[in-house]
Amino acid sequence: MNVLKKIVDLSKDNKKIFLKDENLTYEKFYKNQKKYYKLLKTFMNEKQRNIIAICANYSPDFLSLIFAANQNKCIITFINPSSTLKEKNHIISDSGANLIIFEKKFCLKKKKYLNLFDFKVWKRKDKNNTLKKNDSFIIYTSGTTKKPKGVVLTNEAISNNVMSISNNLKLNEKYSSIIFTPPAYAMGISQILTYMLNQMSIILVSTGNKFPYEIINSIYKNKINLINLNISALRIFKNYILSKRKKFHFVKIVMAGGMQLSNRDIQNYRESFPKAKIINFYGCTENSPRISHYHITKKTKNKGTIWPVGKALNFIKIKIVNNNKSKFGKILISGKSLMRGYNKLNKLTNRRIVNDWFNTGDLGFFDKNKNLVLTGREDDSFRVGQEKLCPEEIEPILKKKFHLSEAIIGKKSNKILNWEPVLVLKKMNRKINLDKMKDILSKEISNYKIPRKILYLKSMPKTAYGKYDRQKINQIINIK
Amino acid sequence: MKKTSKKENILIECIKKILGNKKNNKKINFVDALDSIQMMEFIILLEKKNKIKFKPEEINKEVFSSYKNILNLIATKKERVGK
């Protein structure tokens, strides 16, 4: 099944309110996407599979555009408006996009544009793509490949995942939600499709979570009963929730995934949303993106320090692999929500997917109730808020830009974001000016990847094999 | 006049810390220019450097859409602290 097609079919003649703050019905959405479908067709190259890159914030037209592109059998990729020019250009060339669609204010300079209602379209020639018939989305994610890598998802994979989430949460049209996850993320598109499939009412926040008070007000005013709020966002929102001096009794479900949750974190969720069921979920872009759910009610107790992420959703299998008899090991997943592969990165795809099992790079174990518990990462990536950061992506840029022979990105704990990146260098005659470094890097990489501090060490800790001992380096960072 | 210029200098310093050197600070729309982490850091920095505390409702799209609006808000808050 193609959920995008099903959503379009369900929307026809449906007078239910779709976008709450816009007072827009599903029927109007249906008509709007039809309008986009027709005009978009005139821009397309009939001789090839069209790839559309969209650089825009959430809006009713943004949603219409996604559905119109899918109905036109285009492959869709997203460009985060806040990414750097280099990152935008990388996504455009790597995806092989031939139609780049911008919200006016995000247009790149010195390009010729055509009008697509309120959007601007840059047509470019690119036949250099290796995409297949069923591919429908390419979502870019930070990786060890030195540049963001494109995860190719099929209609089938994303549809299976959306249906699994809907079934697991028993969603229906009585639920309403607010979306502030950036649209360029798999999590953003997954939320849109899941809620629309269930004909729920939605509020789209075009500014992400930059203005928490406005989001909290909107949740309160519209009595939103399903919220996707990771722990980092909850920490930011906490002051704003407290300033309302009221609890959110009407919230029925809080989706709290993305990071390990401690007992204190769960207590914080329970305090703010006393009647809500908390869903601790686990996912990755490569699995369209949800893998598992753990339902936490008022009565649910946890004997450990970290809460489990639960059991696999429908169509998904999870296994733990290790070389010894320990219950701890690498987390591998398989099933019908899995990506087709990484765009133009066959070697990496073959390394990560072996016999249909994908190595997530996460480590964990199954508890006695067969719930999955996450313990860490196999590689050195870490989370800065909701963003994933891979040191291997940043270190070569630092070495090149500042003529360094050694540069290591470590992580310092942060009360809100969980971790923040720190640049670790061996003591040398010159010192790098932090502000100047930020200035130079801001043209190369997204803000969250830029080191917040520089630490100089007499010598770089190394393992017995001569590799950098990142664990020890991180320990030093957090002591200093 | 002198007070305004000091506030402006602090604002420019905060912009520089978060966004690096920008050609025309007065034309920046901070709603689009900053991501959510930068916005949080920018607000914390403004509060620290100006020795003020924003109310949750003061951190909104209208204020952060322009340099002038941020400066006006800081000036109003400083006046209140002075009184």
Amount of helix of chain A: 25-40%
Largest interface: A-B, 30 and 21 residues
Tally of contiguous helical segments of chain A: 13
Write the CATH architecture name of chain B: Orthogonal Bundle
**Which oligomeric state applies?**
heterodimer
Overview of the molecule:
The complex is a heterodimer of chains A (480) and B (83). Chain A folds into 3 domains: 121 residues, Rossmann fold (3-Layer(aba) Sandwich); 173 residues, Rossmann fold, CATH 3.40.50.12780; 98 residues, ANL, C-terminal domain (GMP Synthetase, Chain A, domain 3, 2-Layer Sandwich). Helix content of chain A is 31%, strand content 27%. Chain A is built from 13 helices and 27 strands. In chain A, α3 links the parallel β3 and β4. In chain A, α7 crosses α8. The mean pLDDT of chain A is 93. The longest helix of chain B is centred in the first third of the chain and has 18 residues. Chain B starts with a helix and ends with a helix. Chain B has one domain: ACP-like (Non-ribosomal Peptide Synthetase Peptidyl Carrier Protein, Chain A, Orthogonal Bundle).
